[in-house]
Amino acid sequence: MRRFSILLMALIIFATPALAVNPDEVLENPVLEQRARDISAKLRCLVCQNQSIDASDAALAKDLRVLVRERLTAGDTDEQIFDYVVDRYGEFVLLQPKMAMHTLVLWFMPILALLAGIGIFIARIRNRGVTKTAGLSDEENELILKALQKDE
């Protein structure tokens, strides 16, 4: 019984998740099926939002996988399929958004945030040893001068 438990635990630990593509969705042509898998891996499941439609069990993901395969069998290119899905669901459906003017902030914000953080870090390091003192008012300066003159 102990061996069975260890074997079961090993299977659970080392098991890899199976793709969600159902056997009834698979195309007979292996080239088209590979293209469908490649396209499905680049499209986001709108229900799960952190998985591709290739790995999602959601009903909408299944519909999108079927749609991709229908478009492939109709003779569409990969780019035409991406354009069709983006026109229908928006750019959010792409797991890796395209580089365009309206997505520049998305692409360069991590770099800008890193540079800003480095700049703030360097400024803090430089200012660490510098202590700012408040200047004396005119009255305080006069009192000091009078005190020094009395000592002479």
Features:
152 residues, mainly alpha, Helicase, Ruva Protein, domain 3, 2 domains, 59% helix, elongated
What's the quick description here?
The chain is mainly α. Helix content is 59%, strand content 0%. Helix 2 crosses helix 3.
List low-confidence stretches: none
Give the overall form.
Answer: elongated
Question: Which series of helices and strands comes N to C?
Answer: HHHHHH
The total strand number stands at 0
Count of folded domains? 2
| The CATH H-level homologous superfamily of the largest domain | Cytochrome C biogenesis protein
CATH fold group of the largest domain? Helicase, Ruva Protein, domain 3
- What is the name of the CATH class of the largest domain? Mainly Alpha
Mean pLDDT: 83
Helix content: 55-70%
Write up this protein:
It is a single chain. Helix content is 59%, strand content 0%. The chain has helices at residues 2-14, 30-41, 59-73, 78-89, 104-127, 138-151. The chain has 152 residues and is an all-alpha fold. The chain folds into two domains: 2-95, Cytochrome C biogenesis protein (Helicase, Ruva Protein, domain 3, Orthogonal Bundle); 96-126. The mean pLDDT is 83. The chain is built from six helices and no strands. It starts with a helix and ends with a helix.
List the helices and strands and how they pair.
Blueprint: H1 2-14, H2 30-41, H3 59-73, H4 78-89, H5 104-127, H6 138-151
Helix pairs in contact: 2-3
